[in-house]
Design brief:
Blueprint (H helix, E strand, L loop, with lengths): L1 H20 L4 H4 L7 E2 H15 L7 E2 H5 L8 H4 L6 E2 L1 H15 L6 E2 L2 H7 L5 H5 L2
Antiparallel strand pairs: 1-4, 2-3
Bound molecules: calcium ion (3 copies).
One calcium ion binds next to strand 1.
Length: about 130
């Protein structure tokens, strides 16, 4: 019986590991620990992911580089506003503006309440609700 529990524990650890791999968690992004995500905190997290994904360091994400981001939910074509086949941080920022405003229901410039959503769907990083 003990062995079975150990297996369950291992699987849970594994699942937690995959959740982390799919982008930074709410807690990781909330760097000032006020329980909300400011636009600056979201931008900082997005920039980090962007830089890591930009393998050839040309300052843009190609479709291939974008697809390698684990957990990204958007379609490349939807984000590539000027249709040049690559994504700039500016371009991503514009989509993020709209989604951030949509999620910021009380218009105080930061996202709270997202945390409970994150508990319900821990595999989706709050970053991917705003960016990517
Ligand atoms: Ca914060
Ligand atoms: Ca690139
Ligand atoms: Ca583009």
């Amino acid at each position: 019986m003990k062995k079975a529990w150990l297996t369950v524990a291992l699987i849970l650890t594994f699942l937690a590991g995959t959740a982390l791999a799919a982008g930074p968690s709410f807690q990781e992004m909330d760097t000032d620990k006020d329980g909300k995500l400011s636009r600056q905190e979201v931008d900082a997290a997005a920039e980090k992911v962007f830089k890591e994904a930009d393998k050839d360091r040309d300052g843009y994400l190609s479709e291939q580089e974008f697809k390698a981001i684990q957990g990204a939910r958007s379609k490349f074509k939807d984000l590539d506003k000027n249709r040049d086949g690559k994504l700039s941080m500016d371009e991503l920022g514009k989509s993020a503006d709209r989604r951030f405003q949509h999620l910021d229901r009380n218009k105080d410039g930061s996202l709270d309440g997202l945390e409970s959503n994150v508990r319900r769907a821990p595999e989706v990083s709050p970053l991917f609700r705003v960016y990517f």
